[in-house]
Design brief:
Blueprint: H1 5-22, H2 27-30, H3 34-44, H4 49-62, H5 66-71, H6 74-81, H7 88-103, H8 112-115, H9 123-134, H10 143-152, H11 163-175, H12 179-192, H13 211-215, E1 231-242, E2 245-250, E3 261-262, E4 265-268, H14 274-280, E5 288-296, E6 300-310, E7 318-321, H15 332-342
Helix pairs in contact: 1-11, 1-12, 3-4, 3-9, 9-12, 10-12
Length: 344
């Protein structure tokens, strides 16, 4: 779909006016500064925005500027990240803060090229920070933006963001009056009005120029993405106790829940017996099964089997008193493990 310049200006101005009146209240919109926006973008990747709104003020209170996070221990960042998932983002945010402090004078860079040098910053995040924090005419495309633009153009060919979407986004943002209002408004429109299953077309500022609305194809565009089959894996967690303290270990710096803490746990692609788990963990005492649960992630289903046992104090583990567990960076799955232990 080709746009005349007049149409482009109409579309961008309608979105900017709509967003000015209809923007939801979020803390980073009331207290708007580049570092805050960068932290918000990291936290919002694959996490519901309402959960980000709860955690963002706490994170910024602890780390009000890049230098404060750069000087901190990574465990402090992971601790505040608990419950947001995808903990690699927290580790990348910490590395990003270090680079900003050491190479950019403690100030978040404003140009796309510099932003793309930061760990965890891809094309979308760089565009969001450049446009929203610095009013640069940089395009952004996420699932919400993709859906709005596909429906606007009645474009049915791409279930997920594509080169086509980026071209349309760039065409529009280049001509808009305020990149901050336009880009954030475009995302907001997709999140609140032009939703995937029940679009509120009567409330949409673009209804009069929307190709899908004219053809009544908005519920079919974009086409659904094929869902990948989730792999099932097995985790065997042992709540090992010694005189009121529990044993913990830290996960590797790469992979699932990188750097987070857990009770002694075996990850396996196949089912294991109690004896096999005990042998792999080099534990002598018999393990008592206390519960099971499933933990579902975007790409896998984890079947947790939880055991308990009493052991002698072992130097392989870190020992934590039960009233100090809140100080440990624990993924939500490990909190479920501890919850199973608490009710037995």
């Amino acid at each position: 779909m080709a746009f005349e310049q007049e149409e482009i200006l109409q579309i961008t101005s309608k979105i900017e006016r709509w967003f000015t009146k209809s923007a939801r209240e979020f803390p980073w919109r009331n207290d708007d500064f580049p570092w805050g926006r960068l932290v918000c973008e990291f936290m919002a990747q694959q996490t519901q925005i309402d959960r980000v709104a709860q955690r963002w003020p706490i994170m910024l209170q602890r780390f009000p500027e890049p230098s404060s996070m750069a000087k901190s221990d990574e465990q402090g960042v992971l601790e505040l990240w608990q419950g947001l998932g995808y903990y690699r983002r927290a580790k990348n945010l910490k590395k990003t803060a270090e680079i900003i402090a050491s190479e950019f004078g403690g100030e978040v860079p404003s140009d796309i090229e510099s932003l793309l040098q930061l760990p965890g910053v891809g094309k979308y995040t760089a565009g969001a920070i450049a446009s929203i924090a610095f009013e640069k005419h940089a395009p952004i495309v996420d699932a919400n933006v993709h859906r709005v633009l596909c429906r606007l153009c009645n474009h049915a060919g791409d279930p997920t963001p594509s080169t086509w979407t980026w071209q349309i986004s760039e065409l529009l943002v280049t001509s808009c009056n305020s990149p901050q209002l336009f880009n954030e408004g475009l995302m907001e429109l997709g999140a609140t009005v032009c939703t995937s299953k029940s679009p509120s077309c009567d409330d949409c500022p673009l209804q009069s120029c929307c190709g899908a609305s004219k053809e009544n194809t908005q519920r079919d565009i974009p086409p659904p993405k094929k869902r990948a089959t989730k792999k099932r894996v097995y985790h065997y967690s042992v709540v090992a106790e010694h005189e009121g303290e529990l044993a913990f270990e830290q996960r590797n710096d790469s992979g699932l829940w990188a750097g987070m803490w857990q009770v002694p746990t075996i990850d396996s692609d196949v089912k294991l017996t109690e004896a096999q788990v005990r042998k792999k963990l080099n534990l002598k005492n018999k393990l008592i099964s206390i519960g099971e649960f499933e933990h579902v992630l975007s790409h896998r289903i984890i079947s947790f089997s939880v055991f308990a046992c009493k052991i002698e104090r072992d130097r392989r583990f870190s020992w934590v008193k039960q009233d100090s567990l809140h100080e440990l960076p624990l993924a939500s799955a490990q909190r479920k493990v501890l919850a199973v232990h608490c009710v037995t």
